[in-house]
C-alpha cells in the first residue's frame, strides 16, 4: 500500500466504524430481537395441535425461506408504495429483517423445543404446572441451550446481510464505504476495509457465542 | 420424623379406581382396571412388561387421560372418564398425587433444591422461606443436605432419585406414585432408595408402587395387585399372592421373575 492509500484507509476507518456502531449493529440487534420474538410465536404455532395455526406458520416459514432476502426488502420498500403504503428506509429494513429472521429462527426454536425429552414436560405437569408455565420455566430454558449455536449463526448472517439495506437507502456501514469509494475512486481499498470490519464484528460475535455456550453448559451433562 | 405429615386419617379410602380404560390408537392397553387403596396403605403393582402398569399410574396423575372408568383420589371429586374431563377436573385430580419417575426426570437446569421448591413456590405459591426450610429439612433427612446447590448431572442415580422423591413429597400430596423407582439404578444404589421408600411407608404415606422387586413388595406393601393384559388379574396380601397365587398367569409371571434362566 502506498502512502496516500494508507492515509485514506486510516481516514476512512472512523466514518466506517461510526456507521457500524450507529447503524449496522443497531439494525442487526433490533431486527434480531424482533425476529426472535416473531420466531417464538411461529414455533409455538407450528407445535400447536390446531391444524390451521400450524398451517399458517408452516406457509409463512416456507415463503420466507423460499424467497431471497433482497426480494423481500425490495417488495417492502419499492413495491408497497405502489399500493399506497410508503415506509421509510430504516423501518422498511427492520421490517424485512424481522420477517426474514422470524422465518429462519422459528424452525430452529421449534427443533430445540422438540429436542427436550418428553419426561421434562411430564415432570413439569406432575408438579402442577400448566402448559404455558411448563414451557416458560422448564422447556424453553433447556431449548435455549440447544438453539444457541444455530441462532448465533443466524445472527452472524444477519449482521452481514444488513449490507443489503444499503440498496434501500439505509446509511449503514456498506453504504458509507460506497460513498467514500465513489468520492475517492478507491473502490478496492474501501470495500476490503468494509469487509475487514464485518469480519472483525463476526469474530467478536463468535467468541461471545462460545462464552454463552460455556455459561449455559454449566448444568448439562456431557 | 417426617416434616410433612400425611394429611388423611388412616383407614379412610384414599384411592378408588373403577373400570379404568385406555387405548392408544387401536391398542387397548387398559381394558378395565379396578384399584383401591386406604389411607396409610401401600399398594404394589406387579406385572409383565407392556401390561399397562405405567399407563395406569400415569392416568392417576393425569399425565394420560383415560378413555373410560372413574378415579377418585383424596378429597377431589370423582372424575368420570366416560365423558371428556375438563382441565379443572384433571388439575384437581393431579393436585392430590405426586409421582416419582423411573428415570427421575429432574429438571437439569435447576439445582437439587430448586427442583424441589419449583412446584411449591411457582404452582402452589407458598412463601419462599417456608418452602426452602421444608426442602432443606427433607434433603437433610435423605442425606443430601450438602448437595442442595448441586445440579442433577453431578449427582449419582441414587441421589437423583432421592431428590425425585423429595420433590414429590414437597408437593404435599395425599398419594405418592412410584413407577419402578429403582429399575434404572446400579444395583449397589437400589438399597438406599428402597430403604427410603420403606421409611415413608412406615410413616404412614399412602403409596402406589410399580415394582419388580418382589422382596421389597413383600416387606413394604399391604396389598399386591398383579396386572396382565390391561386388567387386574389378582390382588391380595403380599405373602398370600406372592407365595400362593391363585391364577395360572400370576404363577407363570412369578416363576419367570424368580427363575429367569
Ligand atoms: N403414548 C403411547 N402411545 C402408544 N402406545 C403406548 C404409549 N404408551 C404406552 N404404550 C403402549 O402401551 C402398552 C403398555 O405400556 P406401559 O408402559 O403401560 O407398560 P408397563 O406395564 O409399564 O411395562 P414395563 O414393565 O415395560 O414398564 C405397551 O404396549 C406400550 O407400547
Ligand atoms: Mg412401565
UniProtKB/TrEMBL annotation, chain A:
Keywords: Amino-acid transport, Cell membrane, Membrane, Transmembrane, Transmembrane helix, Transport. Signal peptide: none annotated. It is found in: Cell membrane. The chain crosses the membrane at residues 16-45, 57-80, 92-113, 188-208. Residues 21-209 form the ABC transmembrane type-1 domain. Belongs to the binding-protein-dependent transport system permease family. This is Amino acid ABC transporter permease.
Automatic annotation (TrEMBL), chain B:
It comes from Cellulomonas edaphi. Gene3D superfamilies: P-loop containing nucleotide triphosphate hydrolases. The keyword Cell membrane applies. Residues 15-254 form the ABC transporter domain. GO terms for molecular function: ATP binding. It comes from the Bacteria. PROSITE patterns: ABC_TRANSPORTER_1, ABC_TRANSPORTER_2. InterPro entries: AAA+_ATPase, ABC_ATPase_HisP-typ, ABC_transporter-like_ATP-bd, ABC_transporter-like_CS, MetN_ABC_transporter-like, P-loop_NTPase. This is Amino acid ABC transporter ATP-binding protein. The keyword Transport applies. Signal peptide: none annotated. It is found in: Cell membrane. It is a peripheral membrane protein. Keywords: ATP-binding, Cell membrane, Membrane, Nucleotide-binding, Transport.
Amino acid at each position: 500500500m502506498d502512502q496516500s492509500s494508507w492515509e485514506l484507509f486510516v481516514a476512512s476507518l472512523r466514518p466506517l466504524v461510526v456507521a457500524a456502531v450507529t447503524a449496522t449493529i443497531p439494525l442487526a440487534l433490533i431486527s434480531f430481537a424482533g425476529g426472535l420474538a416473531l420466531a417464538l410465536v411461529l414455533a409455538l404455532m407450528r407445535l400447536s395441535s390446531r391444524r390451521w395455526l400450524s398451517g399458517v406458520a408452516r406457509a409463512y416459514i416456507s415463503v420466507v425461506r423460499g424467497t431471497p432476502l433482497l426480494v423481500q426488502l425490495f417488495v417492502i420498500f419499492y413495491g408497497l408504495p405502489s399500493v399506497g403504503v410508503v415506509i421509510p428506509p430504516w423501518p422498511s429494513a427492520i421490517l424485512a429483517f424481522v420477517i426474514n429472521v422470524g422465518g429462519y429462527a422459528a424452525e430452529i426454536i421449534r427443533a430445540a423445543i422438540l429436542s427436550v425429552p418428553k419426561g421434562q414436560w411430564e415432570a413439569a405437569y406432575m408438579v402442577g404446572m400448566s402448559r404455558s408455565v411448563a414451557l416458560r420455566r422448564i422447556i424453553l430454558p433447556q431449548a435455549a441451550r440447544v438453539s444457541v449455536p444455530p441462532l448465533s449463526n443466524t445472527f452472524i448472517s444477519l449482521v452481514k446481510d444488513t449490507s443489503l439495506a444499503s440498496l434501500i437507502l439505509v446509511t449503514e456501514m456498506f453504504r458509507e464505504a460506497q460513498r467514500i469509494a465513489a468520492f475517492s475512486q478507491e473502490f478496492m481499498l474501501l470495500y476490503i476495509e468494509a469487509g475487514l470490519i464485518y469480519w472483525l464484528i463476526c469474530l467478536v460475535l463468535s467468541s461471545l457465542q462460545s462464552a454463552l455456550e460455556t455459561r449455559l453448559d454449566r448444568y448439562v451433562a456431557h | 420424623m417426617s416434616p410433612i405429615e400425611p394429611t388423611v386419617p388412616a383407614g379412610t379410602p384414599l384411592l378408588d379406581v373403577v373400570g379404568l380404560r385406555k387405548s392408544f390408537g387401536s391398542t387397548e392397553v387398559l381394558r378395565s382396571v379396578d384399584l383401591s387403596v386406604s389411607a396409610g396403605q401401600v399398594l404394589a403393582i406387579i406385572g409383565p412388561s407392556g401390561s399397562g402398569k405405567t399407563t395406569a399410574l400415569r392416568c392417576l396423575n393425569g399425565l394420560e387421560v383415560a378413555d373410560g372408568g372413574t378415579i377418585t383420589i383424596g378429597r377431589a371429586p370423582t372424575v368420570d372418564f366416560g365423558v371428556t374431563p375438563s382441565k379443572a377436573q384433571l388439575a384437581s385430580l393431579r393436585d392430590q398425587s405426586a409421582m416419582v419417575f423411573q428415570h427421575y426426570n429432574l429438571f437439569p437446569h435447576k439445582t437439587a433444591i430448586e427442583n424441589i421448591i419449583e412446584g411449591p413456590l411457582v404452582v402452589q405459591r407458598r412463601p419462599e422461606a417456608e418452602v426452602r426450610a421444608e426442602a432443606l429439612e427433607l434433603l437433610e433427612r435423605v442425606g443430601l443436605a450438602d448437595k442442595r446447590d448441586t445440579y442433577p448431572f453431578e449427582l449419582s442415580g441414587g441421589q437423583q432419585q432421592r431428590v425425585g422423591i423429595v420433590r414429590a413429597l414437597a408437593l404435599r400430596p395425599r398419594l405418592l406414585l412410584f413407577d419402578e423407582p429403582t429399575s434404572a439404578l446400579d444395583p449397589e444404589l437400589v438399597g438406599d432408595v428402597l430403604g427410603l421408600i420403606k421409611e415413608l411407608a412406615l410413616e404412614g404415606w399412602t403409596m402406589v408402587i410399580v415394582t419388580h422387586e418382589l422382596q421389597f413388595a413383600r416387606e413394604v406393601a399391604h396389598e399386591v395387585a398383579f396386572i396382565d393384559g390391561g386388567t387386574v388379574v389378582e390382588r391380595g396380601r403380599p405373602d398370600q399372592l406372592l407365595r400362593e397365587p391363585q391364577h395360572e398367569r400370576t404363577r407363570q409371571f412369578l416363576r419367570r421373575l424368580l427363575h429367569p434362566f
